[in-house]
Write a structure and sequence with these properties.
Helix content is 54%, strand content 3%. By secondary structure, the protein is mainly α. It has one domain (24-317). A two-stranded antiparallel ribbon has the order 1-2. α2 (24-47) runs parallel beside α6 and α3 runs antiparallel to α4. It comes from Shewanella fidelis.
């Protein structure tokens, strides 16, 4: 009896010591602090005109407004992404706020992965690359007057990827900052724009269906490079549900359906080193355990400061 009691106490002691050694809460708190610092830096850089693609976005909008004044409301909405009031920046601040509540996550691994992703997403160089999507939307709407940035031409990308032309705003389709996949009365999913972005619907031939878009979409920074960093766990689960539901419908018809992220599309050029090292998300939007995730090289305050100063100069020189 005494031997059995000793074994039970030993097991309890082992689990207690293991629990005491869990450093994930400390890492989460550290990344929350660092992410806030980066967001503050990024906000200041946007306000001071130090993010190259943000400056170009403002300039492109001004040029296109003169060409197509009827699109002014939509263009002005796109221009907000060049500020700290735009959907891309505010989505990061909202996710950081959400990260304070553990109830928003399945477990500590998911919470830790989220704050690591936020820290990377707030990197000024990566955010600059992310802005290539709304910037190239405006470029494509100019009918060739304005050049694309960080991307090959629309025609070259369509040829390389066997892609369909889904019309103006197609680079933003799939990005939860601008819209979401909704289910129609026929059970199929289609893209629904948020707010003023719904004006894109007037510039296309009809609703963009998830099934067609998945197999025929073209390159965009979000969908092919940045999705891992610019998607919250909740948004990733919604993407997975849309995929699983569509796959089930296709399977019922004896057809095969692949995730829109099963393969990356060709099209990026001159991306930052930071973007090039960003890992890809899984094909269905599921997140792996934090042990297999990309680990930040900037886990210390001093490294953060050094990285920030290098990034500022790099963005100013950007191509």
């Amino acid at each position: 009896m005494a031997g059995m009691l000793m074994r039970v106490l030993t097991v309890i002691l082992v689990f207690t010591l293991a629990g005491c050694g869990d450093d994930r809460p400390d890492k989460i708190a550290k990344y929350q602090q660092l992410s806030q610092q980066r967001l503050d830096t990024l906000s200041k850089m946007l306000n001071d005109g130090q993010i190259r693609n943000a400056n170009l976005l403002k300039q492109y909008v001004q040029v296109l407004e003169k060409q197509k004044p009827d699109l002014s409301p939509l263009l002005n909405e796109l221009a907000t992404d060049a500020t700290n009031r735009g959907p891309m920046f505010t989505s990061l601040t909202r996710r950081l706020t959400d990260s304070q509540n553990p109830a928003n996550y399945v477990d500590l691994d998911e919470q830790l992965a989220e704050v690591e992703n936020l820290y990377q997403a707030a990197d000024p160089s990566i955010f600059n690359d992310m802005l290539s999507d709304p910037l190239n939307v405006v470029a494509d709407m100019s009918d060739g007057t304005l050049a694309r940035v960080n991307s090959i031409s629309r025609e070259a990308a369509a040829l390389a990827n066997g892609a369909e032309d889904f019309g103006a705003g197609s680079q933003l389709v799939g990005n939860p900052a601008y819209g979401s996949w909704q289910t129609g009365s026929n059970g199929m999913s289609f893209w629904a724009w948020y707010g003023m972005y719904s004006m894109f619907s007037n510039l296309t031939r009809g609703p963009i269906g998830y099934d067609r878009w998945s197999s025929r979409r073209n390159y965009s920074y979000y969908n092919d490079v940045g999705r891992y960093r610019y998607t919250s766990p909740k948004q990733a689960r919604a993407q997975t549900q849309t995929y699983e539901r569509t796959k089930k419908q296709f399977n019922a018809q004896g057809k095969k359906f692949d995730s829109p992220y099963a393969k990356s599309r060709t099209g990026s050029t001159s991306l930052s080193r930071q973007s090039s090292s960003t890992p890809k998300a899984s094909s269905t939007g599921r997140t792996a355990s934090s042990k297999s995730k990309f680990r930040s090289n900037y886990s210390k305050d001093s490294s953060f400061r050094n990285s920030s100063s290098r990034t500022t100069r790099g963005v100013r020189r950007g191509k």
